[in-house]
Here is the input.
Amino acid sequence: MPQSQQFPAGDSVCSLHLSDFDLRFDRYRLIQPKADQLMARSLAKYAQLAPVIYCQLEGSLVLVDGFKRLRAARTLKGTTSLEARALEVDEQAAKAAIFNLNLVTSKPNELEESWIIYALVHDDGLPQVEVAQMLGRHKSWVNRRLALIERLTDQAREALRLGLLTPTGARHLTQL
Here is the structure.
C-alpha cells in the first residue's frame, strides 16, 4: 500500500486491493471450506453485496469482518479488489467488533467466541468483567467461553482454526 494513499473512514466505502488487508484477526474465525465455496459462488453470481470492514492499526489495514468474502474473492479469476468500509477503533474494540458485527448474519460459533475472549483476556490483559461488558454478555458466559478454549491443546486449536478439526470434535476433546 503506498504511504500517501488515504482511506475514507466511517460510512464511506472505498475499493481496496485484495492484498491490502492485514489478516491478523483471521485466527478468530474458523475456516469452513464449504462456506467459502458457497461465498465464491455468490460473489460470482451476484457480486459483492456488503463491504468488508477494516480498521487501521499500526499503519496496516486490518480486516475485521469479511474473511470469507476475501478468501472467496481470491479464488475468483479477475477479482482484484473488494469494497471496504473503515471502522475507527482500537485493537480491543476491533476484536469485540468481530463478535458484534456477526451477531445477526453469521454469528460466531462458541469456539470463535472463545478465541476472541481468550485474546481479550490473555493477550490484551482485560478483566473478564470488562470483556463481558464489551460483548454485551454476562461475566459467567465469558468465563464459560474462556474455559472452553483453554482446555484445548495448541495443536488442537491450530487444527480447529485450519478446518482440520470440527467444532463438534473440539467440544468432544474438551470433555476428555
Observations:
- The two ends are 47 Å apart (CA to CA).
- Helices lie at 33-46, 67-75, 91-100, 110-123, 128-135, 139-150, 154-161, 167-175.
- The mean pLDDT is 88.
